[in-house]
């Protein structure tokens, strides 16, 4: 993997991430394909949207269809026929979101399947083995994610456990890399560490210091945000966390968020994002536009012949009206899910592309001000 930082504008950054399945211009938003599929879309849609990387879920793909099956079928790229890059997360978020089925231990996470109740154990090494089978381009290490607010004792436990698991993961990954080289088939999988610490500056500094001191990670994620804290606290945490991370490595803010969150995080030096929000909100009738959110089920759109967003040139906005999308949603037509998801993902992808263009021109602050001016118009 190569990461070339092309331009900075204050703290905002534009770069190129070179992976085995193509270049990824940053900042970038990664559509979420939990089950190796972005809900309601096929990969022709994603290629038409020019998405260079999508996210798959290690926990879910381990349970169904199983990582060994995917490996037998040639890994995620062969299995899905999506020719571009995959990032797979570690299962740490599922341990957080499915906490009634989970028990944290010092050497990993014991959980019961939400599908059939069977018991499984994720160690740092096991999580990487699953992702080697998936053959994802970027693999996330196992971390201990904490919801907020949380006690200082629980956050300290989280960062200590995350650091321990990171040591285990990088040691194991380096061993597997050397083993692959010795066999004449070098790995193309890259590994990212995850900084924890809640919104506490001291804890974030400790986590970032411990993880960066381990070396060898290809990138660094900021985890444990957008899990209950106010937006202002999240932005303040980014203010003091991003400068702690290496300038020559990509920075990934996990699971965030709204268009405003993404713009604010780009302004603070973040390069990569993912979130289920654009597709989940689309399916539930919420459309993102340059001028804010639009509830397509509202009767006000019954006769509206405008596109969802007059400033958008996606397939949906080029070919269909608000009135038609309103009708499809109210009628429960499945085509609504596809058309609305295409638009919302186009909105997010165009947002980061426009931010990138502004950074390269040294005009990010003008972009930032215009973004908020349109929301308020």
Automatic annotation (TrEMBL):
Gene3D superfamilies in the cross-refs: Queuine tRNA-ribosyltransferase-like (3.20.20.105)
UniProt enzyme class: transferase
List of residues binding substrate: 89-93, 143, 196, 224
A Pfam family reported for this protein in Swiss-Prot or TrEMBL: TGT
Entry keyword annotation includes Transport: no
GO CC entries: cytosol
Binding site for Zn(2+): 312, 314, 317, 343
Keyword terms of this UniProt record: Glycosyltransferase, Metal-binding, Queuosine biosynthesis, Transferase, tRNA processing, Zinc
Reaction it catalyzes: 7-aminomethyl-7-carbaguanine + guanosine(34) in tRNA = 7-aminomethyl-7-carbaguanosine(34) in tRNA + guanine
Bound cofactor: record note: Binds 1 zinc ion per subunit.
tRNA-guanine(15) transglycosylase-like domain sequence ranges: 11-375
Region (RNA binding): 255-261, 279-283
InterPro entries: ArchSynthase1/Queuine_TRR (IPR050076), TGT (IPR004803), TGT-like_sf (IPR036511), tRNA_ribo_trans-like (IPR002616)
NCBIfam families cross-referenced by the UniProt entry: Q_tRNA_tgt, tgt_general
HAMAP family: Q_tRNA_Tgt
Assembly mode: Homodimer. Within each dimer, one monomer is responsible for RNA recognition and catalysis, while the other monomer binds to the replacement base PreQ1.
Function: Catalyzes the base-exchange of a guanine (G) residue with the queuine precursor 7-aminomethyl-7-deazaguanine (PreQ1) at position 34 (anticodon wobble position) in tRNAs with GU(N) anticodons (tRNA-Asp, -Asn, -His and -Tyr). Catalysis occurs through a double-displacement mechanism. The nucleophile active site attacks the C1' of nucleotide 34 to detach the guanine base from the RNA, forming a covalent enzyme-RNA intermediate. The proton acceptor active site deprotonates the incoming PreQ1, allowing a nucleophilic attack on the C1' of the ribose to form the product.
Protein name: Queuine tRNA-ribosyltransferase
Gene name in the database record: tgt
């Amino acid at each position: 993997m190569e990461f070339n930082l092309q331009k900075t504008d204050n703290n905002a950054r534009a770069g190129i991430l070179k992976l085995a399945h193509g270049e990824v211009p940053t900042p970038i938003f990664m559509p979420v394909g939990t089950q190796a599929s972005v809900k309601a879309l096929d990969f022709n849609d994603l290629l038409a949207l020019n998405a260079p990387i999508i996210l798959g879920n290690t926990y879910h793909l381990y349970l169904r269809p199983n990582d060994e099956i995917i490996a037998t079928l040639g890994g995620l790229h062969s299995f899905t026929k999506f020719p571009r890059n995959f990032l797979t997360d570690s299962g740490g978020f599922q341990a957080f979101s499915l906490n009634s089925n989970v028990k944290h231990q010092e050497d990993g996470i014991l959980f019961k399947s939400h599908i059939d109740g069977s018991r499984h154990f994720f160690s740092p090494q096991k999580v990487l083995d699953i992702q080697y089978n998936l053959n994802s381009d970027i693999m996330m290490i196992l971390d201990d994610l904490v919801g907020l607010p949380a006690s200082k004792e629980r956050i300290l436990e989280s960062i200590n456990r995350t650091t321990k698991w990171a040591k285990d993961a990088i040691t194991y990954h380096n061993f597997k890399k050397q083993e692959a080289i010795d066999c004449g088939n070098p790995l193309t999988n890259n590994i990212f560490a995850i900084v924890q610490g809640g919104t506490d500056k001291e804890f974030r500094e400790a986590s970032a210091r411990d993880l960066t001191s381990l070396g060898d990670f290809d990138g660094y994620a900021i985890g444990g945000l957008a899990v209950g804290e106010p937006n202002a606290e999240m932005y303040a945490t980014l203010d003091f966390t991003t400068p702690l991370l290496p300038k020559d490595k990509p920075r990934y803010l996990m699971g965030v968020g709204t268009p405003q969150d993404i713009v604010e995080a780009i302004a603070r030096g973040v390069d990569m994002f993912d979130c289920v929000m654009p597709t989940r909100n689309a399916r539930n009738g919420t459309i993102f536009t340059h001028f804010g959110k639009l509830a397509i089920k509202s009767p006000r759109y019954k006769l509206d012949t405008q596109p969802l967003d007059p400033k958008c040139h996606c397939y949906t906005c080029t070919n269909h009206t608000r009135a038609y999308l309103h009708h499809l949603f109210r009628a429960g037509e499945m085509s609504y899910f596809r058309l609305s998801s295409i638009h919302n993902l186009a909105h997010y992808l165009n947002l980061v592309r426009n931010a990138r263009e502004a950074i390269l021109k040294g005009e990010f602050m003008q972009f930032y001000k215009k973004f908020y001016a349109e929301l308020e118009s």
